[in-house]
Specification:
It is a single chain. The two termini are 32 Å apart. Strand 10 (201-209) and strand 11 (215-223) form a beta hairpin. The chain has two domains: 2-128, Gcn5-related N-acetyltransferase (GNAT) (Aminopeptidase), CATH 3.40.630.30; 132-278, Gcn5-related N-acetyltransferase (GNAT) (Aminopeptidase, 3-Layer(aba) Sandwich), CATH 3.40.630. It has helices at 9-23, 32-40, 83-94, 108-116, 156-166, 174-181, 232-246, 264-271; strands at residues 2-5, 51-56, 59-67, 71-76, 100-104, 119-122, 130-135, 149-152, 191-195, 201-209, 215-223, 251-254, 275-285. It is built from eight helices and 13 strands. Helices cover 30% and strands 29% of the residues. The chain is of the alpha+beta class.
Length: 287
Amino acid sequence: MSATGSGKYEHGLRGMQELADAVWTPGSRWHPGELAWARSQHLGREPDWPTRLWRQGSTVLAWGWVDLPGTLYLQVRPGSAELVGEVLAWAESVAAEALSVLVLDRERHLVEGLRANGYVESISDGPFFRRMVGGLAETPDVLLPKGFTIREATDLAARTELHRAAWHPSRVTLAGYTTVTRAWLYRRELDLVAHAPDGTPAAYCLGWLDSRGRVGVFEPVGTAPEFRGRGLGRAVCLAVMARMRGLGADTVTVLPRGDAAYPVPARLYAGLGLTPIGRTVVFTRAR
């Protein structure tokens, strides 16, 4: 087994995605599409994101990603749970402050590994994310206001500006979004934009499928402020769901905020038939 830094940024991401793809279950924190978006959207963040992969031959067994000064994300194959301690030791050596580790509460091998290494769970009603999952056996019809249309994102500059408007303030740039479109598993046919009658981009949903084409994820979804309240977010998500189903997927998932202070996204996805099955929790070392 070898442990290496991420090397080229794109190479490190691909290895992380491959592990996420191999071990995905509905209780996983990371879908490979979520990793592609999280790691590709902001160019220039690499110095703030120390990353290491643990391999056996060409197979990635674990990875750790520190978001400086001290937040750790990690993934470890269930059969290699002993590596949790190694990932923690490495992360503690590069973090600039006491480490906080974010996992999904259903990742039992990670939870147990954290506890075995002296970390304790911190439950809070403050900001957290909730894993929601639904089936694709049926998808409701897409209903749009008169004159609105849904098309694939071909104008990346306009697509970037739509994201920036929906998530203001945003650090996503055209160069960053272009990098997203070059990530493994990106599919233009799942990057859909709702347009107003005059052609103005109004809402979008970017979907990703795992390598087997069975599990799709929304990451991200947004509506420009002036177009909110018209059902466009729902419509464009349904359009992506229909395309996922047409490509053979049977499951869709998303990880929106789950706390009471930010209820709208969870309501949107519940209305699409997705149900919550787990939430993120934070572990810190016991004092």
